[in-house]
Amino acid sequence: MSEFNYGGQAVIEGVMMRGARYVAVAIRNPTGEIVIHSEPLNAKIYGGQISKLPFLRGITMLWDALVLGMRALLFSADVALEEEDIEFSGPIAWGSVAFSLIIGIGVFLLGPLLLVGLVDRYIASSLVSNILEGLIRLAFFLIYVYAIGFIPDIRRVFAYHGAEHKTINAYEDGATLKPDAVQAYSTAHPRCGTGFLLIFAVIAIFIFSLLGRPPLLLRILSRLVLIPVIAGLTYELIKFSAAHRDNPLISAVVLAPSLALQRLTTREPDESMLEVAIAALQHLLDEEEGAK
Description:
By secondary structure, this protein is an alpha+beta fold. About 65% of the residues lie in helices and about 10% in strands. It is globular. The two termini are about 20 Å apart.
């Protein structure tokens, strides 16, 4: 099976596509034009030794979600608001990344732990305590994803998410990158970031269950310190599963839950959305070809 590096993320009225050397974002502005921004990736993160070492290379997925993804989202918001001075970085971008990281860790990582702490004295088994924490975390994530899908603007973002997946699926299949050809492909993809978060939450249950039940402060610190470790394990499992998707066991245990979850985070895109996703990927391919 061929090795593919391309992935992406939906943003406001657009799509971000990331390759091995470049990232490109295509946004449809209020006048109907497609605005494209591209830039080289951080060589130390994507081209350095860390990107080649098993388990450590999973950190790039966290960087994609917390840094590249947030910057692309802010860029898309600037385009949607027709800001005159559009930037893809800067203090506001980095401040937003930091704020999102704090909220994400507080709500989804530490929140379940604090909730379990309210009843922990009544739980005799440390294993049961850790499993309950993990199940609450998983429930938080699933409820959040389901609930935001009712917001009209988020539904459009989810449709662009579907356009991103269709475009990458078509490219990996060798199809022509035209809207009518791309439309025939699935809105699900085995390397989806949504699947990454789901598998991350499940692996966290197993990892944290091995730690017993230390004092609350140490328990909180262990959750923070082990984020890169769990991210590395998650990345390797997804990478292995994508390469062996034809194996019935792997398909049922790893891929099926991830693909099922994507039904909540993707919608069928229209032709104009596919045009944006194709523009992002085509621009990225041109940049990467030029970099060679």
